[in-house]
Amino acid sequence: MEKTKKRSKGNRMTQDIVFNAVIVLLLLFLIVIMAYPIYFVLVASFSDPTYVNNGDFLLYPKGFTLLGYEKVFEESRVWIGYANTILYTALGTALGVFITMMAGFALSRKELPFRNAFMGFFVFTMYFNGGLIPYYMVVKSLNLTNTRFLMIIISAVAVYNIIITRSFMLSNVAEELRDAARIDGCGDGRFFFQIVMPLSKAIAAVLVLYLAVTYWNSYFNPMIFLTDRSKYPLALYLREILLTVSTNAQSSVTSDASAAAMLQKMSQVIKYGIIVVSTLPIVCVYPFLQKYFVKGVMIGSIKG
């Protein structure tokens, strides 16, 4: 009997080891598939254009060069774009987090009149809108076109962010806490700023990351609403630089074959340099928010 139990226990341990090994190998395979394109972009941005254009498998920079970064940073437009993007991202994220937190808190309170109707109206706007032309006409009628103020407020509030904030408030801000604060004479405003906000660091980190990425990568709204080039964000300037390089390479074909070939080579390296320049700053923010972000994105995943 004991031998049978030991044998069955040994079989289970063997099965567990095999299962865990297969899972680890699959996860490592997925990590390589997802991580290598990012790594390739970084390596290619430092590699000689010849190796990049040949499609070589790059594990390390070949023919190390900073040509792509030199071409990107020698443009004064890049520094103007960085300043504008940092301004839009910082102010827009702060405004968006503040408004979203207040909206989520209000919609989580049972005493709010018509809160379900408000929630239904917000959700309706996620699926139905008037289109780009009416949107532009409304913005223009408010005299907000070609203003930095518009770039700050235009992406500050998203219904999805309000929904996850409301869910967090319902799960983590107990009614008993509100009742205890009310007994001590604490009003709604004081309760929100002194109790709810400190308890909501996890969801605030999620909102900061979502909004910061949205603002940092935004180029369509600036392309539609901005005409003053001094107000362009980084993404729009980088798009212009890439289009300029591609256009110059094509126009040089008829005039100078050697110059055209050089521009064609450089265009790929410049493209990868642009990707690194535009994404690296926002990627560096993630490690500081990871602890709260993991907790925040698990909202509603565990019941009971």
Automatic annotation (TrEMBL):
What processes in GO biological process is this protein linked to?
transmembrane transport
Lipid bilayer topology: Multi-pass membrane protein
Per the UniProt record, which residue ranges are transmembrane?
21-42, 86-106, 118-137, 149-170, 191-213, 269-289
| InterPro entries per the UniProt record, alphabetical | MetI-like, MetI-like_sf
Name the coiled-coil region(s).
Answer: none
Q: Where is each ABC transmembrane type-1 domain found? A: 82-275
Keyword vocabulary terms for this entry: Cell membrane, Membrane, Transmembrane, Transmembrane helix, Transport
Source organism superkingdom: Bacteria
Q: Where in the cell is it found?
A: Cell membrane
Looking at the UniProt record for this protein, which Gene Ontology cellular component terms does it annotate, in alphabetical order?
plasma membrane
Family statement drawn from the similarity comment of this UniProt entry: Belongs to the binding-protein-dependent transport system permease family.
For this entry, the protein name equals: Carbohydrate ABC transporter permease
> Where does this protein come from, organism-wise?
Candidatus Caccousia stercoris
